[in-house]
Each structure stands twice: as structure tokens, then as C-alpha cells.
Specification:
13 strands; alpha/beta; 340 residues
Length: 340
């Protein structure tokens, strides 16, 4: 059986995470409770999510190897750039440990690896500052042909975000559209795109902030907006030519709509507040899970957006119960049969 391939063209970042009781006020210094360093970036996180959520965990709680389908099912290829600093090599190694192909990740001399400085509060909310570093080295010419999207393998799905240069993302979208390759775009951090980039886009996944920033209908919407109102935002993107739109709503779940007239809301799983540790990787987990479900359904000759959104919401609910982004991403069996 020919492996199904998900290509990720996106950001590679080291997360520097500080946990505090609350976000400091302007000019205020707080003593944090914890500091840790984690490999991440939206590209790296969604790549690991795509692999883990299409495979069962290869080891048990004691670290013993378990039967797994490492060589079967979905394979993931990552295209991006890291610096030649102490963060770059460990980041690539972490991807390799999670069976993500890194042959298209370059190491850029004299450039730092991208960094996210993350402040997480006791209730799991976060604030993030991002420096792209070596991610800027990935250029439009690198993805002008479809071979550049996945190291020579024709992907079943391309996933991309906005942690790399906008022009590079736009070129990747044009290349995929020209070659008939399905695309899942998660425009985060929110960055305006020309309307032509939405035309023919298979999947658009945005959170509330991104949806409000990138649409006219969402300008006055926020976390308190009634769920049904997000249908106006989804309709705006559908009118621009997007085929499937998903708006993630944090603790409220996700709203979805497609060009076949299907729409609805999937509620988030109910989790005790004290079990919510860190929401940083929830969106990237959602993207990876949704992408996996799409590719699996596509290979089966069907497509049910509600089913994909439901699976993605369930996967994200597992992620927020662990500190960190990449390490917190669950394996398939941890979503289908979660531990108590």
C-alpha cells in the first residue's frame, strides 16, 4: 500500500515557557512558579500531531516497546529551517524521534532558531511573543514546485501556517492549487492574505482571534459572541472560495461550515478546571488531528466534516492537560481510549 503523506511547510520554534499565577501588569515584575524549554513551533507541532494521531503509542508506561504501525498509514514530511545554535539540532532530533521526516529542514549558518516566549497562567491561558529567526530563510523558490513541499513525495495534504514568510506560504498555496494538492491553511499568527489565496482552498482552520482579524463579519466578535454568529464569518470565507471552514472557540468547542451546506457546532469536552495545565498546543493539535481525519476519509472515498471536527476537539482536550506543546500532543490510542 502506498503511504499516505501529509506535508507540513511551516515554523520550527523553541518554546520558552514560564508559568505564573497571572499575567504581569504593565511595568510589573512577578516571580514565576516554573520555567521550561520545549521544542515546538506551529509547523513542528502540527507535524508531530499528524503522525501521533494516526499511530498508536509505541511504548507503554514503563517504556517498553509495543506493537506499532510505524511504517504503515500516514507519513509526515516537514519543510522548514532552524538556526545553527543550540536550539536547532535538538528540535530536529525531537521531530525524528516522532517519526517526522526532516530531510527538508535546513540548518542556517549565523541565524538563530525561531523562539516563542510563552507566559502561562494558573488557569492554563497563555500570552506569546514570537521571533521567527531562521524561519525567514525558507523562501518562495523553495516551494515553487510540488517536489519542494514534501521532499519529492506527492502529498495527500499540505498543512501550512503563518510562522514563516507570508510570500512563502502564498507560493506554497499556489503550487498546491496548480498541482491539485489539497491544502489546510491555519493562518496563525493572523496575517492578511489576498482573496486569491482563499480561492480553491480545501480547508481553513482559524481561532476566534484570527477569524475576527481576517474577516469583516468578525470585527465585533469576541469570546462572548454567541456560537451561531460565527456562521456569518464562515460564510464570508466560503464566498471567497474556501471549501471547508472551521473556527475553533476554545472552551466552547468549534464551529464548522462547508460548501455543501453542512454547518454546526461541536462542544468542547468538559474538563475539570484543575486538570487544564496549558492551552498552548491545543490549536496545533486540532490542526493535525483534523488533517489526519481528512486524509483517512479521503482515502476511504468519503468526507464528513463534523466527524473530523469532533475528533480534533477530542484530541485537543487531551493536549491541554499537559504542560508544553509538542510533548503534550496525544497518540491515537490516548484519544480513542483516554486514561482515567
Amino acid at each position: 500500500m502506498t503511504p499516505r503523506v501529509i506535508a507540513v511547510v511551516g515554523g520550527l520554534v523553541t518554546d520558552l515557557i514560564t508559568i505564573a499565577e497571572r499575567i504581569p501588569d504593565n511595568g510589573e515584575t512577578l516571580v514565576s512558579k516554573h520555567f521550561s524549554r520545549h521544542p515546538g513551533g506551529k509547523g513542528a507541532n502540527s507535524a508531530v500531531a499528524a503522525y501521533r494521531l494516526s499511530h498508536r503509542k509505541p511504548t507503554d508506561a514503563q517504556g517498553n516497546d509495543l506493537p506499532n504501525d510505524i511504517e504503515d498509514g500516514i507519513q509526515v514530511r516537514m519543510t522548514g529551517a532552524v538556526g545553527d545554535d543550540p536550539f536547532g539540532t535538538p528540535l530536529k532530533k525531537k521531530l525524528q524521534e516522532n517519526h517526522v521526516d526532516t530531510s527538508c529542514i535546513r540548518s542556517v549558518p549565523g541565524k538563530p532558531t525561531g523562539v516563542c516566549v510563552v507566559v502561562v497562567t494558573d488557569n492554563g491561558e497563555n500570552r506569546i511573543l514570537y521571533n521567527r529567526g531562521a524561519n525567514d530563510d525558507l523562501q518562495p523558490n523553495d516551494v515553487r514546485e510540488w517536489e519542494g513541499l514534501a521532499g519529492g513525495d506527492r502529498p495527500d495534504l499540505l498543512i501550512s501556517q503563518m510562522e514563516i514568510q507570508r510570500e512563502t506560504v502564498e507560493q506554497a498555496l499556489r503550487t498546491a492549487l496548480k498541482e491539485g494538492i489539497d491544502v489546510l491553511l491555519n493562518p496563525a499568527p493572523a496575517s492578511h492574505l489576498f482573496d486569491e489565496n482563499y480561492q480553491g482552498l480545501t480547508h481553513l482552520v482559524v481561532n476566534e482571534t484570527e477569524a475576527a482579524t481576517l474577516s469583516l463579519a468578525g470585527k465585533n466578535m469576541d469570546a462572548d459572541t454567541d456560537v451561531a454568529e460565527w456562521g456569518k464569518v464562515a460564510a464570508e470565507f466560503l464566498e471567497k472560495g474556501v471549501r471547508n471552514v472551521v473556527i475553533t472557540l476554545g472552551a466552547k468547542g468549534a464551529y464548522y461550515s462547508d460548501d455543501q451546506g453542512n454547518s454546526g457546532h461541536i462542544a468542547a469536552e468538559q474538563i475539570d478546571r484543575e486538570r487544564v495545565k496549558d492551552t498552548t498546543g491545543a490549536g496545533d493539535t486540532f490542526v493535525g488531528a483534523y488533517g489526519v481525519e481528512y486524509v483517512n476519509q479521503k482515502c476511504a472515498g468519503k468526507w464528513n466534516i463534523e466527524q473530523a471536527v469532533r475528533f480534533a476537539c477530542k484530541a485537543s482536550a487531551r493536549t491541554i492537560q499537559v504542560v508544553g506543546a509538542l510533548e503534550a500532543i496525544p497518540w491515537l490510542d490516548e484519544v480513542l481510549d483516554p486514561p482515567e
